[in-house]
Amino acid sequence: MLERIQKANDIKDLKPEELPELAQEIRKFLVKKISKTGGHLASNLGVVELTMAMHLVFDLPKDKIIWDVGHQSYTHKILTGRKDGFDDLRKYGGMSGFPKRKESACDAFDTGHSSTSISAGLGYVCARDLQREDYSVISVIGDGSLTGGMAYEALNNASTLKKNFIIVLNDNHMSISENVGGMSDYLAKLRTADFYTDLKKGVTTVLHNVPVVGDPVIERIRKTKSSLKQLIVPGMFFEDMGITYLGPIQGHNIPTMVRAFKEARKIEGPVLLHVITKKGKGYGPAEEKPEKFHGIGPFRVETGEPENPKKKDTYTDVFCKVMCDEAARNDKLAAITAAMEDGTGLAGFRKKYPDRFFDVGIAEEHAVTFAAGLAAGGIKPVFAVYSSFLQRAYDQMIHDVALQNLPVMFAVDRAGLVGNDGETHQGIFDLSYLSTIPNMVVLSPKHKWELADMIRFGIAYDGPVAIRYPRGSACDACPEFRSPVVYGKSEMLYEEREIAVIFVGHMFGEALEVRKQLKEAGYHCSLVNARFVKPLDTEMLDHLTEQHKLIVTIEENVRSGGFGEHVTEYLMRTGSDARVQILALPDEYIEHGNVEVLRKETGLDVETMTAKIRKLYETL
Ligand SMILES: Cc1ncc(C[n+]2csc(CCOP(=O)(O)OP(=O)(O)O)c2C)c(N)n1
Ligand SMILES: CC(=O)[C@@H](O)[C@H](O)COP(=O)(O)O
Ligand SMILES: [Mg+2]
């Protein structure tokens, strides 16, 4: 059946009785392919029928489907002729795990971060109407993503604009882990209502049985915006905002879904389809543990066990352990996550200290201001967050935290290149955006012991402080380099002359190797661990410029606004003769792929960096 799907709309040539078999083949295909490449399995298994139904009703690429986060767009990729791309899913040069306009005309909008789909869809709708075009716009948002503030800003706007717009709420009662919050509770209540079609039938029968009510009246009620549901479930959140609510709809039943989409297309104004699905549907291990199969590396299909079990502690593990230890000593310490308790390691903290743990939903902006409030009230909050997701809370960091110099600690995980998630998830801007903020202290550890020391430093520090560390295994080399972390001070590891290499955080391994290769080639080279990106250790810089002609900075952050530029600016300002060479990522969005490959592609691998340093030094 899958072979008959070569391009968009091919699914329409299948007979209705063939569709369940296609759904089964898609599931089998997804499990097999993702077991090899890794990817977002559970969310994709949950939306197979939903996606098929949309592709049966709508006409792509004319109609626009916008996937919130986009991690669930794999079936959409299959149905739009990209099946072969799954062999290289998320690999460098291969197919992205998220929708990409540059990949297909059927991908209407690039996503990766949550809660943007209703805004983007509404923009499309207005563009369509302004240009008198004729197409449908469908934004597909999950119940987890509906915890994000932007979704409500967009719903608010949609209800005023009253334009034809379809919002699909894919409700599987899960974010990455269990979904949280009042909206989630509200949806749970709606879920327990009868399914829409049954309900409609039921009410129609009742009306038919009332002698004075005939078919025309039933038809009129059916067509009114208030809908039959309104008679049964009053005061609905969406209806009261002026958004027609259709649901709950059984999301694994293709004919039901097709009927619902056809009905939604006829309704005037914004309409929300509340679709109930099961995360991980059809693959036992993923149904049982959807959080484990949300984003997963290669695994064994028979058991669901990972192909490459973790051997070493990650930086995230170290963070979790130190937080738990410190919380035992300090009852003012609290931890916040924006729906990432597993990814940030805070699940362990939640188990031990549930009262001091806050999962605020996918709400990074709120999390930061909430942390500011906690701090103002005398608690020491630590917001553990991925580097790329913290981007959206820039104003809250300035306006609510740093301006008042409040002691909020940011544990910035997934800093630097994250790899296979690609452009939207690379944590390559944080040194730039954090170091522009007055009062903010910015640190980065070179190895696991230094991370532990920095976390203790951050907890004790009486002001805003951010510690950035990468995804994956923590460096456990050179435990002997462990001098105390002192505010604003870098760490001299090897002192020589001629060339001084200053590295930031996890570029330690590469910097050590660069120094080794330089020495083997006969150069003298000092090695300094920056530790603090803000404030700069200007005393160390003054000292280095006395003995070194070339100062090299190494960081896994974009060059613009990064550590190297701050060092350059300081040396220019102070009239130093030393030359600075900045080794950083280019000012570009960096695609998906293995981190080692990406470093090579961007010139942050040991060989390229060593060659560049030698070349420049020879010209001095
Ligand atoms: C701004 C932002 N914060 C966090 C994430 C990480 N994240 C990706 S998917 C997800 C859960 C989404 O839940 P839902 O929308 O219900 O989709 P499901 O996985 O259940 O299909 C989270 C928290 C993100 N992508 N963007
Ligand atoms: C889609 C999304 O935003 C998350 O699922 C993300 O892919 C998690 O990344 P990690 O695998 O680094 O936790
Ligand atoms: Mg969900």
TrEMBL record:
Q: PROSITE patterns this protein is in?
A: TRANSKETOLASE_1, TRANSKETOLASE_2
SMART domains recorded for this chain?
Transket_pyr
Q: Which residues are listed for thiamine diphosphate binding in this entry?
A: H71, G112, H113, S114, G144, S145, N172, Y283, E364
SUPFAM superfamilies listed in its UniProt record = Thiamin diphosphate-binding fold (THDP-binding), TK C-terminal domain-like
Reaction catalysed by this chain? D-glyceraldehyde 3-phosphate + pyruvate + H(+) = 1-deoxy-D-xylulose 5-phosphate + CO2
Record flagged with keyword Methyltransferase: no
Q: How is the cofactor bound?
A: Binds 1 Mg(2+) ion per subunit.
Q: Where do the Transketolase-like pyrimidine-binding domain residues begin and end?
A: 313-477
Q: In which pathway does it act?
A: Metabolic intermediate biosynthesis; 1-deoxy-D-xylulose 5-phosphate biosynthesis; 1-deoxy-D-xylulose 5-phosphate from D-glyceraldehyde 3-phosphate and pyruvate: step 1/1
What EC identifiers does the entry list? 2.2.1.7
Q: Which UniProt keywords apply?
A: Isoprene biosynthesis, Magnesium, Metal-binding, Thiamine biosynthesis, Thiamine pyrophosphate, Transferase
List where this protein forms a coiled coil.
none
Instruction: List the record's Gene Ontology CC terms alphabetically.
Output: cytosol
Complex formation: Homodimer.
Family, as annotated: Belongs to the transketolase family. DXPS subfamily.
Function according to Swiss-Prot or TrEMBL: Catalyzes the acyloin condensation reaction between C atoms 2 and 3 of pyruvate and glyceraldehyde 3-phosphate to yield 1-deoxy-D-xylulose-5-phosphate (DXP).
Official protein name in the record = 1-deoxy-D-xylulose-5-phosphate synthase
